[in-house]
């Protein structure tokens, strides 16, 4: 879910700054997609902060991502390769979630449902 959140942040940066895909400033904070538990948690913290700076928070996504991270606890049993894979998967599939959020808002849906 951190990858999904970052996907949204990258979208916001493209929209706000008028940059092309791959030129988003936050992309430099992704450690070349070679990740571990500590880096994922750091990325989450920085992404939430950056979205707040842009005033483009995504409360439901931030909440569920934080919930999953807290439930995961400490000392994950995943390898760095697995962590990197799941983050990248979220990054690649993130637009599925952000598009749904926009459609729900257009239909008058409640994001807390």
SSE layout and pairings?
Layout: H1 2-17, H2 37-54, H3 59-72, H4 80-106
Helix pairs in contact: 1-2, 1-4
Fold and architecture overview:
The protein is mainly alpha-helical and 113 residues long. It has one domain. Helices cover 66% and strands 0% of the residues. The protein is built from four helices and no strands. It has helices spanning 2-17, 37-54, 59-72, 80-106. The longest helix is centred in the last third of the chain and has 27 residues, at 80-106. Residues 108-113 have low confidence and may be disordered.
Number of domain modules: 1
Q: Tell me the helix content.
A: 55-70%
Structural class of the helix and strand makeup? mainly alpha
In this structure, how is the largest beta sheet organized? none
Distance between the first and last residues' Cα? 18 Å
Q: How many strands appear in the DSSP assignment? A: 0
Q: What is the CA-atom radius of gyration, in angstroms?
A: 14 Å
| Poorly predicted regions | 108-113
Summarize the structure.
By secondary structure, the chain is mostly helical.
Brief descriptors of the model:
single chain, 113 residues, mainly alpha, 4 helices, 66% helix, disordered C terminus
């Amino acid at each position: 879910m951190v990858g999904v959140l970052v996907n949204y942040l990258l979208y916001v940066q493209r929209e706000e700054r008028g940059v092309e895909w791959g030129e988003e400033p936050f992309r430099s904070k992704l450690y070349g997609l070679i990740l571990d538990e500590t880096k994922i948690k750091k990325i989450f913290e920085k992404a939430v902060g950056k979205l707040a700076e842009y005033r483009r928070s995504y409360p439901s996504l931030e909440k569920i991502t934080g919930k999953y991270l807290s439930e995961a606890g400490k000392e994950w049993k995943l390898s760095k390769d697995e962590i990197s894979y799941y983050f990248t998967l979220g990054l690649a599939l993130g637009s599925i979630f952000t598009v749904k959020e926009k459609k729900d808002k257009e239909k008058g849906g409640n994001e807390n449902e």
